[in-house]
Amino acid sequence: MRVRLSLLLAAVVALPTVAAGFQAINRFEVYPVNKSGVFEVVNRHGSAPKDFWCGAGDYAIRVLRTSATQRVYLVQAVGPAVTVQGRKGVQFALNPPQGADTSTGYSVTVKKVGDNMPAHMAQNYCYDRIEDELWPF
Predict the structure, then answer these.
(1) Where does the signal peptide begin and end (predicted)?
(2) pLDDT score recorded for residue 134
(3) Residue 129: its pLDDT value, please?
(4) Backbone φ and ψ of 112, nearest 5°
(5) What one-character-per-residue DSSP string does 88-108 give?
(6) Please, which residues bridge with residue 92 across strands?
């Protein structure tokens, strides 16, 4: 019995550790990408653009401690995630990407680099998902 327990413990210790990301209100994971402030929101099954923005706004406010009025910029459109293999991700930052059109539009998208909104507006999309889960009718 002791040998089995020792082997089990050794196997658990030998497993590669997975870096834990920040979990936004809507349970999307957010990971820092580089030291220049870029972070990536990684998708879950059935994700929509507002879900990525929720993760970005929540991360900006609760982790980066930015003001609610700070704009969050989309710096890399939806595509293969660089932080989690086999998933899709969208990269955001608090600074606008160089050369990108940062004029705001009327739709919520994760395909237009330079798209942006205040952190509080992005975080507010988190509550749409909660309402859908609580009241599915």
Answers:
(1) 1-19
(2) 58
(3) 65
(4) -110, 105
(5) EEEEEESSPPTT------SS-
(6) 39, 74
What is the share, in percent, of the chain residues with pLDDT greater than 70?
A: 80
Amino acid at 98: Q
Q: What size, in residues, is the chain?
A: 137
Task: Name the residue ranges covered by the structural domains of the chain.
Answer: 20-134
As a whole number of angstroms, the distance between CA 24 and CA 45 comes to 15
Nearest-angstrom CA–CA distance, 85 and 78: 14
Which helix (H) or strand (E) segment holds residue 9: the answer is: helix 2-14
By CB atoms closer than 10 A (0-12, 13-18, 19+), residue 64 is: middle
Burial class (CB in 10 A: 0-12, 13-18, 19+), 59: buried
Cβ neighbours of 52 (radius 10 Å): 30
- Amino acid present at 49: P
